[in-house]
């Protein structure tokens, strides 16, 4: 059966969680069988990056598309919201949507693999046998946005987006044959919201860093994440306000690393002492090699967190909230606390020997549960069981 994969956010560069998961999926499939990839460029995607993606996916036919501009963009947000509503998509999905890609899909036959929430735009009316790989359940994350809204305008906007997202998600689920989620918690959210049982759970994975040699510096902590993701930034500011002062007085320093750092965000962090605001780091190995431990302060968000797995793969002990540690099996590598003060207390209580044992356990759990080989085996065998890959192909390589 022909297989067409659809990706609505170009997976290079690997500057946040979604592109990491997407590229892992595509590379795992490419090792097993040929397929066709339809991918939407980001506004800044270059021809060189398209060529790099093709080189990373031997045997895969790659078709790249640009997102279709809003017809009503001249009216500003009012026009964009009206147009996305008419198209039956949340505005952020419509921003990644390509009408040219949609039209090209209608000529395809066989199976379709829709990767990520925005790819649900094509599931709704293209008659392939679709599998939808979901990073999170939109109706649940949209409700979190309502709870976090500050001010009447933001609250009304969040309520509007929640309604549009729920309608979009429900329609796509009606038209996909199978669906996967990233954690057992997300599977529960899917059942609670739609009465739909996930066909399988597929946690994300991260590559083990080659040549990485940890040389941790005592009392040096790291925070890793995209600054442009609202839940990350809210969690960071809460931790800095409620947990960081105690750690700073004890002599700790905290390095902040990730994409999406703007001048305004940097200015908003300037009032906190003891921070090193690094921003985007093209190679995480030297940054994470010097971290004694990491903090993942999240009170909203869904699914397995790529930041958490990246830290563990680099042998960094992780102190996180239950949401920050979602999908990570019980392991000595992590410590959990519900509050920012609790995270600070847990870090202060950890002895040097305990941190050493946590670092060793971090690498073990990465190899056992989140390795590329483990991910590929689970992906291919699961898709094979549900008819998107032949059984012969499912076992040929793995």
From TrEMBL:
Gene3D superfamilies: Glycogen Phosphorylase B (3.40.50.2000). This is Uncharacterized protein.
């Amino acid at each position: 059966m022909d297989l067409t994969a659809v990706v609505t956010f170009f997976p290079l560069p690997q500057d946040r969680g979604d592109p990491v998961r997407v590229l892992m999926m595509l590379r795992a499939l490419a090792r097993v069988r040929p397929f066709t990839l339809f991918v939407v460029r980001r506004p800044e995607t270059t021809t060189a990056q398209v060529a790099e993606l093709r080189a990373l996916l031997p045997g895969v036919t790659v078709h790249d598309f640009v997102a279709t501009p809003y017809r009503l963009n001249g009216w500003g947000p009012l026009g964009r919201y009206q147009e996305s509503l008419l198209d039956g998509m949340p505005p952020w999905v419509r921003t990644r949507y390509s009408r040219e890609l949609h039209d090209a899909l209608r000529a395809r036959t066989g199976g379709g693999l829709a990767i990520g929430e925005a790819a649900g735009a094509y599931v709704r009316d293209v008659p392939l046998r679709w599998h939808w790989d979901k990073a999170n359940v939109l109706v649940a994350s949209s409700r979190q946005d309502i709870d976090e809204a500050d001010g009447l305008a933001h609250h009304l906007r969040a309520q509007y987006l929640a309604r549009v997202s729920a309608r979009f998600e429900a329609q796509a689920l009606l038209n996909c044959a199978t669906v996967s989620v990233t954690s057992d918690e997300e599977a529960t959210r899917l059942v609670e919201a739609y009465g739909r049982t996930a066909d399988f759970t597929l946690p994300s994975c991260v590559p083990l860093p080659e040549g990485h040699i940890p040389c941790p510096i005592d009392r040096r902590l790291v925070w890793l994440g995209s600054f442009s993701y609202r839940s990350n930034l809210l969690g960071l500011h809460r931790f800095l306000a409620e947990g960081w002062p105690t750690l700073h007085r004890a002599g700790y320093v905290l390095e902040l690393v990730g994409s999406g750092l703007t001048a305004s965000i940097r200015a908003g962090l300037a009032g906190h002492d003891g921070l090193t605001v690094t921003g985007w780091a093209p190679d995480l190995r030297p940054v994470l090699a010097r971290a004694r431990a990491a903090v993942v302060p999240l009170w909203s968000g869904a699914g397995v967190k790529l930041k958490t797995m990246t830290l563990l793969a680099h042998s960094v002990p992780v102190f996180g909230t239950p949401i920050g540690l979602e999908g990570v099996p019980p392991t000595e590598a992590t410590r959990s606390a519900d509050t920012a003060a609790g995270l600070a207390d847990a870090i202060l209580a950890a002895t040097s020997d305990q941190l050493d044992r946590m670092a060793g356990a971090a690498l073990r759990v990465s190899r056992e549960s989140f390795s590329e080989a483990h991910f590929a085996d689970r992906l291919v065998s699961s898709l094979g069981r549900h008819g998107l890959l032949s059984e012969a192909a499912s076992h040929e390589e793995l």
